[in-house]
């Protein structure tokens, strides 16, 4: 698979992030791809469900496992072993662990997650951390990174729309320049 | 006040509190109040008719009974007689109910004052006990489907665990007396050492701008809010530094410099290393404040919070109940013997409406879902309950929000994190996924019985609340082997993710 394919799938993940933004959720979206097609897509639902653990990845995983056509082998230990995840933000530690427990093949993400990132930013749950059973997986960032950052910024601006309006108008401008990532992907 | 769309009278029913059966076009038969009923009134005690597991599997579930029965102990199913089967579902409900296993009955109690003519409804839960009248559909946007999140739930606190009968060693004595660390039934895992020498101070690069005219500070603080830069990640630092007549403002840790309003003609922002956490001790405070003025939070993390004998007794009972649920999961459902339990907080014991208790067992085998771990199910049950009560969503983890360090008691029932102020009991150390779920939910403390040294996220494989960078800390307690709460062996394969 070449880089264009990755960008194509990441665009689909961005559409889900847009949906999250429209719903007032932290704009993170993802798609799971198997055999060249999307088998599940989801977005954050933490506000709607009053549950800070309902991240896009876990929502999509529940759809996959509930669908017998996608997990035909009953009781299969690694239902995602032939599946790739595209997600706009680096999976958090929780989701990174969930993905490893399900044997995900590979992960591509947009921007890093300095506060909770589970694929190296805070903890390397995908490979550095030892596990007695589950094999590691590769996680690569930097795909549509700018888009992922911009949509998070847009969320922050609308989140604070109720704050007092300051005298200057300069601050309402959405900043568009983005520095290169600290470590290239 | 309570419109009754085409209600017709139902069969006569003798009921002490004046409950009537009426028939509605929408929901069929239902139970209605014929008079005002005060809160906490027992309106009905319905005896149940029990079906064996076998009997129900072969016959019951193929019949109309399947819309009315609910789960009893030992895999049996129960049909409530009397009014019990006629309550409709409502979210939130105005009637709560509890199982009386010993007397084969269910007690229904009003959750609030009920007005004349109002329908009395219970919360069916998410396919936990009752099967909702409408068939469930398997779509992803429908969390109420029977996807195995149920496990064992108790809303209310009346269920008896009759599996074990080990007396509580903390039951007697002065409930207000402080228990010494040695006499606690668990050991407190030591928090990360405090940074008390210059080399150990953890820092991060932050943007700072000098403000020559201090009158601009107010405008700038408003602008910070507006620009979304007042999030919790810098909440452990003061925003303003005054240094030899020079006032500076802390802006952000973003990759690129924020741009303050141009009409203030400020100099360009510059990068400065600032501490990553508040100071827990005075030596640490002076070291950190030399870099940037830092908040001092000695009480929360430095001195361990004392445990009164009453609270220890409460914890002992809570852990015993957790173990009971785990044992039951294995004996009755052939699940892994793992359970998690969120009791109503000890400080709530005198409250008029304490939070309900949530207990969940691992269901990864019966649901064939490898991630149906007890902890994450318990969290989900509590979230679903809160949603059903119409409580505000918790603040977003990844979004700027109120400072979670601010007094949690005042906001617990409002916009708050799910597990603020809650003690979380679990039979085995939770895996990385579940430990992070607990951190996301801002749990106060986690108490587990069996450590999982290869897979656990609370000290075993990693210790998440001690990681550099995460924005919440919780206390971890490990049960001492000598304080017996269980008669059964619930140890599991050490390579399992709990
Ligand atoms: Zn996540
Ligand atoms: Zn787990």
Automatic annotation (TrEMBL), chain A:
Record's keyword annotation contains Membrane: no
One GO MF term attached to the UniProt entry: tRNA-specific adenosine-34 deaminase activity
GO BP terms: tRNA wobble adenosine to inosine editing
Pfam families: dCMP_cyt_deam_1
Cofactors: Zn(2+)
Keyword Ribonucleoprotein applies: no
EC number: 3.5.4.33
Keywords, in A-Z order: Hydrolase, Metal-binding, tRNA processing, Zinc
UniProt GO cellular component terms: cytoplasm; nucleus; tRNA-specific adenosine-34 deaminase complex
All residue ranges annotated as the CMP/dCMP-type deaminase domain in the record: 4-121
Catalytic activity, reaction form: adenosine(34) in tRNA + H2O + H(+) = inosine(34) in tRNA + NH4(+)
Family: Belongs to the cytidine and deoxycytidylate deaminase family. ADAT2 subfamily.
Protein name: tRNA(adenine(34)) deaminase
Automatic annotation (TrEMBL), chain B:
InterPro entries named in the record: CMP_dCMP_dom (IPR002125), Cytidine_deaminase-like (IPR016193), SET_dom (IPR001214), SET_dom_sf (IPR046341)
SMART domains referenced in this protein's UniProt entry, alphabetically: SET
Superkingdom of source: Eukaryota
One Pfam family from the record: SET
Domain SET: 17-125
Annotated signal sequence range: none
One GO-annotated biological process of the protein: tRNA processing
GO CC terms, sorted: cytoplasm; nucleus
UniProt keyword list: tRNA processing
GO molecular function: tRNA-specific adenosine-34 deaminase activity
Chain positions covered by the region annotation Disordered: 387-415
Family affiliation: Belongs to the cytidine and deoxycytidylate deaminase family. ADAT3 subfamily.
Name of this chain's protein: SET domain-containing protein
């Amino acid at each position: 698979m070449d880089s264009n394919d990755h960008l194509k799938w990441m665009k689909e993940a961005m559409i889900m992030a847009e949906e999250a933004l429209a719903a007032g959720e932290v704009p993170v979206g993802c798609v799971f791809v198997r055999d060249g097609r999307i088998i599940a897509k989801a977005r954050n639902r933490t506000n709607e469900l009053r549950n800070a653990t309902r991240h896009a990845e876990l929502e999509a995983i529940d759809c996959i496992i509930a669908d017998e056509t996608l997990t035909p082998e009953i009781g299969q230990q690694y239902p995602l072993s032939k599946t790739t995840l595209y997600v706009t933000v680096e999976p958090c530690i929780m989701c990174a662990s969930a993905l490893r427990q399900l044997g995900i093949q590979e992960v591509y993400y947009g921007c890093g997650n300095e506060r909770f990132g589970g694929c190296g930013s805070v903890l390397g749950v995908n490979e550095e951390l030892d596990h007695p059973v589950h094999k590691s997986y590769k996680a690569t960032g930097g795909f549509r990174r700018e888009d992922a950052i911009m949509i998070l910024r847009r969320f922050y601006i609308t989140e604070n729309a109720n704050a007092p309006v300051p005298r200057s108008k300069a601050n309402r401008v959405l900043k568009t320049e983005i520095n290169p990532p600290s470590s290239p992907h | 006040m309570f419109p009754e769309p085409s209600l017709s009278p139902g069969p006569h029913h003798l009921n002490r509190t004046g409950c009537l059966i009426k028939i509605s076009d929408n929901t069929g038969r239902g139970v209605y109040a014929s008079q005002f009923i005060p809160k906490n009134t027992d309106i009905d005690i319905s005896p149940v008719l029990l079906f064996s597991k076998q009997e129900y599997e072969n016959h019951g579930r193929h019949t109309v009974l399947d819309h009315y029965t609910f789960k009893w102990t030992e895999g049996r199913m129960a049909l409530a007689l009397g009014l019990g089967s006629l309550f409709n579902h409502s979210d939130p409900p105005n009637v709560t109910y509890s199982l009386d296993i010993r007397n084969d009955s269910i007690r229904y109690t009003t959750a609030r004052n009920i007005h004349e003519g109002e329908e009395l409804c219970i919360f069916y839960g998410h396919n936990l006990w009752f099967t909702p009248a409408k068939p469930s559909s398997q779509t992803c946007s429908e969390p109420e489907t029977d996807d195995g999140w149920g496990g064992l739930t108790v809303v209310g606190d009346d269920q008896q665990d009759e599996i074990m009968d080990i007396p509580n060693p903390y039951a007697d004595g002065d409930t207000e007396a402080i228990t010494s660390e040695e006499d606690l039934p668990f050991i407190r895992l030591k928090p990360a050492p405090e940074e008390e020498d210059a080399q150990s101070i953890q820092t991060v690069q932050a943007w700072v701008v000098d403000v020559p005219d201090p009158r601009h500070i107010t405008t700038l603080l408003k602008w910070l809010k507006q620009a979304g830069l007042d999030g919790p990640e810098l909440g452990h630092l003061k925003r303003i530094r005054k240094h030899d007549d020079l006032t500076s403002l802390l802006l952000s840790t973003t990759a690129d410099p924020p741009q303050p309003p141009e009409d203030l003609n400020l100099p360009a922002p510059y990068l400065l290393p600032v501490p990553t956490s508040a100071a827990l001790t005075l030596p640490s405070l002076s070291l950190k404040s030399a870099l940037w003025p830092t908040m001092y939070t000695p009480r929360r993390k430095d001195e361990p919070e004392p445990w009164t004998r009453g609270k220890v007794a409460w914890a002992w009972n809570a852990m015993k109940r957790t173990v009971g649920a785990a044992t039951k999961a294995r004996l009755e459902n052939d699940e892994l013997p793992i359970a998690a339990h969120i009791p109503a907080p000890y400080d709530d014991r005198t409250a008029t409406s304490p939070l309900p208790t949530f207990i969940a067992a691992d269901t990864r085998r019966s649901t064939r879902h490898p991630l149906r771990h007890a902890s994450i199910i318990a969290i989900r049950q509590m979230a679903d309950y809160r949603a059903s009560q119409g409580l505000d969503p918790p603040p977003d983890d990844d979004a700027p929000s109120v400072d979670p360090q601010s007094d949690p008691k005042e906001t617990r029932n409002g916009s708050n994190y799910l597990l603020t102020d809650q003690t979380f009991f679990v039979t085995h150390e939770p895996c990385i996924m579940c430990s992070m779920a607990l951190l996301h939910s801002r749990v106060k403390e986690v108490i587990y019985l069996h450590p999982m040294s290869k897979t656990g996220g609370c000290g075993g494989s990693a210790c998440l609340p001690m990681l550099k960078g995460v924005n919440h800390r919780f206390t971890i307690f490990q049960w001492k082997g000598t304080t017996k709460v269980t008669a059964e062996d619930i140890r599991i394969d050490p390579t399992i993710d709990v």
